[in-house]
Amino acid sequence: MSEQPLDRAARCARRFDVLFAEYFETLGATLEAPSFSRFTPECLELLRDLSLRGGKRMRVVLLHEAARLVRDEPVEGLDAAALSIELLQTHGLVHDDLIDDSATRRGGPTTYHAYRERFPRHPQAALGLTVLAGDLALALSLRVLLDAELPVEVRQAMVEVQTRAATDTFVGQIADLERDFAPAVPDDDVLHDVADHKSARYSVLAPLYLGLLAAGEQPAAFEEELRRYARLVGICGQMRDDYLDLFGDAAAMGKPTGTDLREGRRSYTVARLLSAVSGAERALVEGALGDRACTPETVAAVREIGERRGVASRMRADMRRYAEQAGQVAAGWRPRWREDAVGFFERLPMWSVERAG
């Protein structure tokens, strides 16, 4: 990607962070809650803290670039759509951290662990409040669209996009858990379907749809190619995350490697490892898989096996292949949409892969 779209993306992210902070500042006054309730403002504060704590805001950038496919001037409705996208992301983070029993997220405590600390003698209350906090973020992601000053048909279309995206994500999360209980090592078709449902449809496809709708385009007319692009980008992104979890630089990432191993997740990396090893090496990988006490030394040994058996290099090659395919899909948009924005979507997948190098 050239400097110009990168700078534009950074400006977009900074502007949205200000917008998100302003949204939470006014939310307490607009959300109807019983006057006696202390738990409600505490819940909103936890959601605010998690939402504003970090993140690259790439979904917001995709939304704005999707609108730029059609026109370059300011477009009404993008702020509401951006808030909806990131509130849905907050919902996902709250529930993911609960499912994984994660203690930290974005350099701070997860919502679940914050509630566990708040209610050390009432674990069921901490669990229930965490679920409700995630549910509230989901409801707010839809309400912000319903409250947007947009033509009724645009509002309804946007709500439908987000509702479908949320539904697909929940199905993907269920399938993600199911994948780890299957007796056989999952093949690429299974892993691709999980990546598509769990992340691509709400992180890539929904922002594309929302941006096009805001700009006056009818994305349903291009559904097949938009879905294919989103699926390929989603596969790339999930492969990158899985690759970095074992082969990445822990210091650069700011978190330890080997999480998927310790949690017993049959990710792209783990599935390829299991398919590439036998004998003592397989016994080592299987012994580490699902062992939460797995040491950094064991993770390093598994990493060395993966590098020696060509798993790391094959994953890098696969990521590049899927990125190239996604770029080719986007390149086909040139006869229809603006060159500058098409170029952004064409280069985005490979830029993402190169971050994993």
From TrEMBL:
Keyword presence, Methyltransferase: no
Cofactor needs: Mg(2+)
Classification via PROSITE patterns: POLYPRENYL_SYNTHASE_1
Key words of the record: Isoprene biosynthesis, Magnesium, Metal-binding, Transferase
Gene3D superfamilies on file: Farnesyl Diphosphate Synthase (1.10.600.10)
Family of this protein: Belongs to the FPP/GGPP synthase family.
The protein's name: Polyprenyl synthetase
Source organism: Streptomyces ambofaciens
Organism ancestry: Bacteria, Bacillati, Actinomycetota, Actinomycetes, Kitasatosporales
